[in-house]
Design a protein that fits this description.
By secondary structure, this protein is α/β, with parallel strands linked by helices. The chain is built from 17 helices and ten strands. The chain has two domains: 196 residues, Periplasmic binding protein-like II (D-Maltodextrin-Binding Protein, domain 2); 204 residues, 3-Layer(aba) Sandwich (D-Maltodextrin-Binding Protein, domain 2). 53% of the residues are buried.
């Protein structure tokens, strides 16, 4: 079943020292990395090539075997897969290995970690090696591996387009309509409270920063951008403040719950119908299967509510790419494998079957194992067709080199604000200020 990638969880992976000029420039997309070109300068290598790939995706060894027994054997490019932990643990390990010039040829990199790896000169620009791969992904997903430049730092592997999940039976019982706008969402929450005070439409949770980031992304936020040779932090921008004020207002008035997700109490709320909807992503069926087993077949999925009627845009919550490192002596060969892994029909079918991912490649989102709905949503045959339509309109994101600091501050500041039903705006300002302060501390130039 589809799953989400683990979010960045700590400060551990950002190097504290001032980055050298060329690495910082690469993070900004201002110049090309000196080591970005393929080590073989695009020329065919003679003799067999052996590559090492670090990834946490379940069943990746079986997918790699397909390459080694097929295209890899023909091209004399063999890949050795080495299972890794995800999140900050892997990023830290990559940076430690890179510091010793011993990073593997290929790594699985979460989208929000790409700028950190690039700013540390750990990822190679493979734009000259990926051919027509760009056209096989939604623009908003592809953009997460380019940092808004012509350079390409990875091939998208999986994604997490966001959508709205709701208890169809309870919506019918209380005469509720599926909200198409966020204003309708707020009215639905209040109507439910009037009709069933013991139930909540949903909860605002601060224990997974990716949810809020995706909602801000849908609203048009760009948290990190560049201005000349400087980073500009826009976490406290108008789009994000609109999102924060909206959810903070609902929490303050008691229209929705303020309890965190993924706890026993939250699972119980979903399983008993105390919470009857959830703003989530395409991987939600897996979470609901384990958290709310008694409600299988009672849920339905719809597009995310929009800020303006008639709009059709979603955010992304989770996902990763396959990247080539600057330490690789065979970057062209590594890029060839990365492209195959994430665009070849057989490879994608195996990734879905063995790894349970939701593929970023659009052609794979309604074929093979995804031709049928998740078992939990057997009552909604068009689940993946609907999901694919939603995914095509994923808004572009804008990540920076210290996402971990922003995420940590979000969990702390918004966690307190949600619990106390206090000002979400103040929490957002703190998130902005601490992110800017950390960039300056690391030695990045920051535009005010």
């Amino acid at each position: 079943m589809p799953h989400r990638s683990a979010p960045v969880r700590s400060k551990s992976h950002v190097l504290p020292h001032r980055l050298v000029a060329v690495a910082a420039a690469a993070a900004l997309g201002a110049t090309a990395l000196t080591a970005c070109g393929s080590s073989d300068d695009g020329e065919a290598e003679s003799g067999p090539v052996s590559l090492t790939y670090w990834s946490w995706t379940p069943g990746m060894d079986k997918v790699v075997d397909l390459w080694n027994d097929g295209p890899g054997k023909k091209d004399q490019i063999s890949v050795t897969f080495k299972k890794q932990a995800s999140g900050d643990t892997l990023v830290t390990k990559i940076l430690t290995a890179h510091k010793a010039h011993k990073a593997p040829d290929l790594v699985q990199a979460e989208y929000q970690a790409v700028p950190t790896l690039v700013s540390n000169d750990a990822l190679a620009d493979i734009s000259g090696e990926v051919g027509d791969a760009k056209g096989k992904f939604a623009d908003g997903v592809w953009q997460q591996t380019t940092l808004g430049t012509d350079a390409v730092y990875g091939i998208p592997q999986d994604s997490g387009p966001m959508m709205f999940y709701y208890r169809a039976d309870l919506f019918k019982k209380y005469g509720l309509q599926v909200p198409k706008t966020w204003d309708e969402f707020a009215r639905t929450a209040r109507t439910l409270k009037e009709k069933a005070p013991d139930r909540d439409l949903t909860t605002f949770s601060a224990n997974d920063s990716g949810l809020f980031a995706g909602l801000a992304q849908q609203a048009g936020a760009k948290w990190w951008t560049t201005s000349g040779d400087k980073w500009k932090v826009g976490i406290d921008d108008a789009a994000t403040r609109k999102v924060a004020d909206f959810w903070g207002g609902l929490v303050e008035e008691g229209a929705i719950d303020n309890q965190p997700m993924y706890t026993p109490a939250w699972n119980k709320a979903l399983n008993t119908g105390k919470q009857i909807a959830w703003v989530s992503a395409v991987w939600a069926p897996g979470t609901l299967t384990t958290g709310a087993p008694d409600t299988k077949g009672k849920w339905a999925m719809a597009p995310l509510p929009q800020w303006s009627a008639g709009d059709d845009v979603t955010g992304n919550w989770g996902g990763s790419s396959t990247a080539v490192t600057t330490d690789s002596k065979h970057q062209a060969a590594a890029a060839k494998f990365a492209a195959w892994l994430n665009t070849d029909p057989k490879a994608l079918a195996a990734l879905v079957k063995e790894g349970g991912i939701y593929p970023a490649a659009t052609a794979a989102q309604t074929s093979g194992a995804l031709a049928q709905p998740p078992a939990y949503f057997a009552n909604q045959p068009d689940f993946y067709t609907t999901a694919a339509g939603i995914a095509k309109n994923t808004a572009p994101s804008a990540w920076g080199p210290n996402v971990n600091v922003a995420y940590t501050t979000f969990r702390d500041a918004f966690g307190v604000a949600a619990k106390d039903k206090s000002d979400f705006g103040a929490a957002l300002t703190k998130m902005q200020d601490e992110t800017v302060a950390d960039l300056k501390k690391q030695g990045f130039e920051v535009a005010e």
